[in-house]
Amino acid sequence: MATSEADIWIRHNFPRLRTRPYQVTSDDTEEYNCLAWAAGENHRKWDPTDPSHHWPATRSLTIAAFYEAYATERYVPCDDGTLESGFEKIAIYVTLDGGPKHAARQLSNGKWTSKLGDGWDIEHDTVEDVSNGVQNEDYGLAVAFMKRSI
Amino acid sequence: MESGTPATASIDQTPIAEERLYAPANGTPYWTVVMPANVINAALEQEFNTLAEQWRSETRHMSLAADKAANFHLHQIIGMGDKVLPLILQELQTKTTDWFWALRAIARQRAPAIPAEDQGVVRRIADIWIQWGRDNGYLRS
Fold first, then answer.
1. Of A39, B46, B99, B103, which sits with the fewest C-beta atoms within 10 Å of its C-beta?
2. Residues on chain B touching A117 (C-beta within 8 angstroms)
3. Which residue range is the domain that position A87 belongs to?
4. pLDDT tens profile B10-61
5. What is the pLDDT of residues B96-128, one digit of tens each?
């Protein structure tokens, strides 16, 4: 089976996905980013670092500001990313310098969905699958979780 | 050789550079090389395209504008200043690349305001910048 452009790019930038299963679930697009996708939006970008983009909270690259932003979508902080019946969860990824870099959303089957930068949406089994990219500015680790009732 | 139009007639004879002697009233005369505008523009466009492609390639996996803006290729594009605005704005007409950080950095206080309802909507922000470019002479109407 031929390897698609998406697969080549994904496996280059997210080395864990070279050996872990994932599924591409969208076309590549710059019309939204991971922070919007975690909130369930695919028509605009959420970004606290750029006033051109939507951010419904304090414009600060901190976990506190991310809690505040996702609280506008009824999410509240929770302990971890284990699947809980009746709840939808998001994971917030943070790098060693303390800045949030990425967010993923849990699906009803317990897997996670991530928008990878300006690339594709993927479905991945665990929150760890998109951690630790090959470049310095990777997504870091999922250290904060939030949930909302569905 | 047969008579008729010389073989060189179809070759563009426009010099790519011209030497000019400047003789200041109170200083040493000096030679300088003057490049025609079309040559400068072609070189600028080529450099912009190369830097833009490198920037896109190296930052495509990133989610935050601030992280994409930390890339040295984008720094070089921003460093080109006003003269790169037409190239960025032309590209915005056909691609949805997020050039907004660079545009704000170059335009500074001249940058258009983005209404709250349009924030994050890449196509709408692009259209605001394209209109700004037309209003300010960076794009033809």
1. B46
2. 59-63
3. 5-149
4. 555 555 566 778 888 888 888 776 666 556 688 899 999 999 999 999 999 9
5. 889 999 999 999 999 999 999 999 999 999 999
Smallest CA–CA distance, residue A60 to chain B, in Å, is 11
* Number of domains observed in the structure of chain B: 1
Tell if the CB–CB gap between A119 and B120 is shorter than 8 Å.
no
Do B123 and A13 lie within an 8 Å CB cutoff? no
Those residues of chain A whose CB sits closer than 8 Å to some CB in chain B are 9, 13-14, 29-36, 43-55, 61, 101-102, 115-119, 133, 135, 137
What's the pTM? 0.84
Q: What are A40-94's pLDDT values in tens digits?
A: 999 999 999 999 999 999 999 999 999 999 999 999 999 999 999 999 999 999 9
CA neighbor of B34 nearest in space, from B16, B14, B18, B15: B18
Q: Say how many C-beta atoms besides its own lie within 10 A of residue A84's C-beta.
A: 14
Q: What is the ipTM for the molecules in this complex?
A: 0.91
Of B122, B68, B62, give the one whose Cα is nearest residue A41: B122
Residue B67 lies in a domain: yes
Residue B80 placed within a domain: yes
> Which of A14, A33, A54 has the CB atom closest to B63's CB atom?
A33
Total of domains in chain A:
1
Strands (E), B35-127: none
- DSSP character string of A14-35: -GGGGTS-EEE-S---SS--HH
Domain that holds residue B93: 29-135
CB contact under 8 Å between B64 and A43, yes or no, is: no
Residue B2: inside a domain: no
Report how far Cα B96 is from the mean position of its chain's Cα atoms.
17
Minimal Cα distance from A45: which residue of B?
A: B120
Instruction: Tell me which residue in A14, A50, A54 faces B66 most closely, judged by beta carbons.
Output: A50
